[in-house]
Amino acid sequence: MNVRTMGLLKLLFAGIIIMVAGILIMAHTGSFLLIVMISAGIGVFFDGIYTLFGIGRWKLTGATKVLAIIKGICNILVGISAVTITIMSPGDALMVMIFIFAFDLVFSAIVAFENAIVSSAFGIQELRSHFIIEGIIMFLLSMLMFFRPVETLVSVIRVIAIFFMVGGVFMTAIAVVGFIRKPKVQVSVEIGEAEIVDGKTAKKKK
User: Fold this and answer.
1) Helices (H) and strands (E) in the chain, counts
2) Which of 14, 18, 24, 94 sits in a 20 to 30 Å window from 166, CA-based?
3) Domain span at 132
4) pLDDT tens, position by position, 44-89
């Protein structure tokens, strides 16, 4: 089995696995929501730790430092709550954690806007637009979670499922087309150098 065939087989298997994962996510949205809650909790927990450890390195002062400390502590508490509540009481965890995450997103949006305001003072003015966009996205997402909590999460899960299915189909199709099409055979022709002999052009043999 050559390298090309091996690569196509890997692409084919990966496409099938991703496509099946998308179908399973679409068919079992409720179970996947719990997995998302636990994963999000773990991610928020480590983000809180990263924020607290980064305060000294970023040399934050004043209100910025206070907000960063509060954000780090809140993220750690939210992360622990998301994991424990989801595992201990999965039936009640969904709505509770949606609103907790929504509150956390609002506070994170405030911190992002505050970072945009003081970015020039800390010499990171090039990140100002990044902080503003981050804050807007977090604020809009938190509003959706407040007013349409379940619908928002279900929509996000379905978008993820569709992305997986489309991506899996696309990868599988590329692999199948690769198997159908035969690789082009490259033929190299060696051309000798020309030299002049007695006014005539002769071909020099190598």
Assistant:
1) 6, 2
2) 94
3) 3-201
4) 889 889 888 877 666 666 777 787 788 888 888 888 888 887 777 7
